[in-house]
Specification:
Radius of gyration of chain B: 26 Å
CATH topology of the largest domain in chain B: MetI-like fold
Helix content of chain B: over 70%
Strand content of chain B: 5-15%
Strand order of the largest sheet of chain B: 1-4
Oligomer: heterodimer
Number of strands of chain B: 4
Structural class of chain A: alpha/beta
Number of strands of chain A: 11
CATH superfamily of the largest domain in chain B: MetI-like
CATH topology of the largest domain in chain A: D-Maltodextrin-Binding Protein, domain 2
Shape of chain B: globular
Order of helices and strands of chain B: HEEEHEHHHHHHHHHHHHH
Largest sheet of chain A: 11 strands, mixed
Structural class of chain B: mainly alpha
Number of domains of chain A: 2
CATH superfamily of the largest domain in chain A: Periplasmic binding protein-like II
Helix content of chain A: 40-55%
Strand content of chain A: 5-15%
Chain lengths: 411, 340
Amino acid sequence: MLLRKLTLAVSLALSANVAFANCGDISGTVSIVGNEFPAIQTVAKGAAACASDAVEVISNLTADHQKINLAGMQGDPAEYTTAIIANSSIIALMNDDVIRPLDDLIAEHGADIPKSNLITIDGKVMAVAFMANSQHLAYRKDVLAEIGVEPPTTYEELLAAAKMIREKGIMENPVGGAYKSGWNLAQEFVNMYIGHGGEFYNAGTAEVAINNPQGVATLEMMKALTEYMNPDFLTHDSNATNAEFEAGNTALMNMWGSRIGVLMDDEGAEEVVYSNVAVGGPMTVGGGTTPATTLWWDGWTVAKNTSDENAKATFMAMKNGTSPGILNDDTMGEAVWMIEGYSPAPVNAGVFASIKAGAKPYPMLPYHGLLHTALGDNLSDYLQGKESAEQALADTEAAYTTAAKEKGFLN
Amino acid sequence: MKHKTFFWFVLPSSLAMLLFIFFPIVSVLIQSVHVDTEQVIKEVTNCGPFGCETITAVDQEATQALKRENPIGRFAGFTTYLDRRHLAIDEVRAAWSTSNGIGSFIKQLVNLPFYKAMSFTLAFTFIVTPLVIIFGFIIAVAVNSAAKWMRGPLIFFSLLPMLVTPLIGALILFWMVDARGIVGNALQYLAGDPTLSVKASTPLTWIMLMVYGVWHSAPFAFIVYYAGLQSVNQDTLESAMIDGASRWEQIRYVIIPHLLPLTTFIALMQLMDNFRVFEPIVSFSAEAHATSLSWAIYNDLGGETRQLSSAAATSVLTILGICILLLPVLVRTWRDFTRK
């Protein structure tokens, strides 16, 4: 772990040296808050290349960024001049009106940002995306070859393959999944429900509608998958799921594209595991055509409560942090960069397959965060066999409705 | 002490308490009886790397106008306290009228988040607190009767669980009880069941959390009792020995009465601490099996959309719960005080 951190620090230091700074004439403070993983660190380094006597660039990258970014942007002046967010977390910032439209800055200084990277909400550009992410199949080539099965393209095929692996005695629990009660479990429900063609709300309203045949089918499929998982699945987040895979205990799982690199490197696993990791596209379910996964982008924003001087400095620094200059041999494989000059590596094939298969973006609705929380709190009882699927869905709906009333989305 | 001297003496701490305890509680109370202003929803077209779509969004201008009118939100009275996530009055009433027995009523009751959290919180409090007192006492008596040169190292090792950061201590235990960990494996061997998993079973998870609670808090009771043991009247103890009292009788009739006031103190502290049980639930990833009031507050604030009013209401209910729990102990202390 320490070694990995050291190599990371060294490679980042090297990449910072080669990062090409083209920041224009700016002054003021750039203060970044964001999640902590290699790709984001690269962006922050790229932004830091704009630091000079007139510009101070500081960054606070932490896994708990969502707990602090809103509070840190509500003050006037804001503590953070930019937050690096994803399509779900921009909603909280939008709901509280703490980020500014970027149209004027783009017109003046951002003509070279690809149009497709601009996140436009109600006609105004609110964020600039720089990388894509998605969950998709990751599997062990050698295990599938042993049972003579092609990589599954549907969850039904995955179940059949899992059954064969167990019956042949290769692995007891061949399926992995980030089913930890809370955010992860809710995310898997969202994936599977979209795969079943379900709609979360009555059209045009904040009224939830998941207690329906698609919802029940979703839960039944999730339960069928858990039969082939480690019995502790309700405590496994993405990290623990990856660890199970690296330990050679699982052979099939739905995993984040941004976390495949960890599986393919030669650390933390035996050769037979890391040399046999392969990625497939996202899977479909129940005969549907929409993949049971969601597309995500990560992007940067500019705080509303900050001076025009700082806003401009932030815009230019973040533009530099997500410019083609940050791409080199070390940083190329860190993410599916939406930056010119990016050439995809095999580890990123799954995310590309998701985009190509027409996967839907994660719902960007102002009240969806509340439903996500409600799902995470209420589905585990069903998966433990304590209550029926209908009851779990009814509980979720009731929990969501209570929360939505408190937040003023429903009356 | 003169009234004036007394006044100046307590002024700094009273001011600090007012500022850091009283005002925050008042602010939480105010927050808990308000809910957010209505969010005006409109349909907008969003575009991004994956194409355009028409979805709903918050109409910022209209919503901000409403917010300016009511900066702290709409007054809601006690609705947040009575809603499904807290006392759930309507749901409890419905469960009472539809259930055909006390068993099915309880089953419906613990399906509601507040009562689910309460059932674990109370079980944890009332099982862990007495066990902490008993184990703390046994360790203190044992250490006290050990040879003098051994006591230093013994005290150090007995205090270790309390010195370890709760989150870290819980995480270590969490990996040990894993199905492939040393404790988990030993349990599988003892039970003769290779599929036994502590983390997958609700009763075993509860036991694990309680074992952790006792392990973590027993040193606190131990060190308090150990300090108390140093002031046991040796004359009384000697005369008891001369009268032919056995070791047990000495403990029962001399030591325990001497340590009784300390027991009240430990019980008070432990009731408060255990009612706020939180870290082990997070460290053990036990949310699926056990929740507590503190965990509910954390969960309300940790989501992508923060639910401040709900968290505030749970906080007030936690304070009320602790007051009710401490009432018997406080009444007793007050009686002892006035008797003298």
